[in-house]
Q: What sequence folds into this?
């Protein structure tokens, strides 16, 4: 269809679909005939005598002003479209990355790994200890030489089922406590430190972290992080923190 | 469009007069095709008032490779009269298409037709003109 009204002058082919249609049939005999016919007819038109007083108004170059630049036409250009889509995808990934990490805090990666540990832990792995969680600080200090491994007051009154101390893949000493209530697990682990100065990279208050259906709430004090973790949403942990306030 | 040089000149002058009036009033048309649109409108008005060509079934022949040689024997006025006798909007489509000043989008805008219609008008026009050529200047003569 486009080929039937294809311009016989290549300079008049300005749109992509017309250019593609002409490209497809450029070697066909029928199209060559059509173009020769059109050019011969146009030559006859050009030979039409024009009165001098009319001709002086125009030169060939000024008969039709070039079309104006429009956003719509620019946006339809495949190269611009491709760049636009690429930029949009990159922007989307960037925003997703920011949204995902906006609640991050120093030690969040360790907390996430420990949530995975929590999800795969069985109570039989722990040494049975039935006491208040707050009372285990002395045990960690006396038996394992772990200083400031204290359970915060918000969770200190919960009764324990067992505990253990293990080294993670970075050889950091991790204390794990299993409590009766809601089959919650507590983790105490060293706070993240600045690689150059060795100073603790602290943060204030409680921070939430989640991983594979498990939620943890983390605080940091005296260079040690405490995380209470359970399977479920953050609202299940919120009452404990607000009780502390 | 009119097939009449005098009438065409009058229309041209009327269009330029209108443009001059608008320019003086500080109302230059923003449409870059205004001049052609206005001139076409005046041509249509003028042709409605004059003698009307009878609508007849035009014979059609496939476009031939020898058409260029046949056309070389034609006078431009013969072509102008043939095009001016075509029914609207075919007349506008053929006149603007062979003027070789407009791209496809401009043609659609000025002739106020869709692509499919424009393609049919021009394709039919070719075959009808070829048939007329075959009668007016037989191939042997060319």
A:
């Amino acid at each position: 269809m486009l080929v039937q009204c294809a311009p016989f002058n290549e300079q008049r082919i300005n749109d992509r679909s017309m250019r593609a249609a002409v490209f497809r049939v450029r070697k066909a005999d029928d199209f060559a005939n059509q173009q020769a016919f059109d050019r011969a007819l146009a030559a006859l038109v050009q030979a039409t005598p024009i009165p001098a007083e009319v001709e002086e108004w125009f030169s060939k170059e000024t008969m039709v002003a070039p079309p104006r630049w429009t956003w719509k036409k620019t946006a339809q250009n495949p190269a611009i479209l491709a760049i636009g889509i690429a930029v949009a995808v990159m922007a989307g990934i960037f925003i997703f990355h920011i949204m995902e990490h906006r609640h991050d805090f120093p030690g969040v990666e360790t907390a996430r790994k420990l949530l995975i540990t929590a999800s795969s832990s069985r109570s039989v792995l722990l040494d049975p200890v039935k006491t208040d969680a707050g009372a285990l600080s002395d045990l960690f200090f006396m038996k394992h030489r772990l200083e400031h491994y204290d359970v915060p007051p918000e969770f200190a009154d919960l009764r324990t089922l067992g505990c253990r101390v293990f080294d993670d893949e970075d050889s950091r000493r991790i204390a794990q406590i299993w409590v009766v209530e809601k089959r919650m697990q507590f983790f105490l682990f060293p706070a993240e430190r600045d690689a150059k100065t060795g100073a603790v990279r602290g943060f204030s208050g409680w921070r939430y972290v989640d991983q594979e259906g498990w939620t943890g709430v983390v605080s940091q004090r005296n260079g040690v992080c405490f995380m209470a973790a359970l399977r479920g949403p953050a609202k299940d942990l919120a009452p404990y923190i607000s009780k502390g306030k | 469009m009119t097939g009449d040089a005098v009438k065409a000149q009058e229309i041209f002058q009327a269009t330029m007069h209108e443009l001059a009036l608008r320019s003086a009033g500080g109302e230059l048309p923003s449409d870059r095709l205004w001049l052609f649109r206005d001139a076409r409108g005046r041509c249509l008005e003028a042709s409605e008032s004059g003698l009307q060509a009878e609508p007849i079934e035009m014979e059609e022949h496939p476009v031939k490779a020898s058409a260029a040689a046949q056309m070389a024997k034609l006078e431009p006025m013969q072509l102008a009269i043939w095009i001016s006798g075509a029914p609207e909007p075919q007349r506008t489509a053929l006149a603007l298409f062979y003027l070789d000043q407009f791209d496809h989008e401009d043609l659609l805008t000025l002739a106020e037709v869709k692509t499919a219609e424009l393609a049919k008008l021009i394709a039919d026009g070719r075959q009808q003109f070829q048939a007329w050529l075959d009668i007016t200047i037989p191939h042997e003569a060319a």
Notes: Chain B has a mean pLDDT of 86. The CA atoms of residues 20 and 26 of chain B lie 10 Å apart. The first helix of chain B runs from residue 5 to 24. The radius of gyration of chain B is 17 Å.
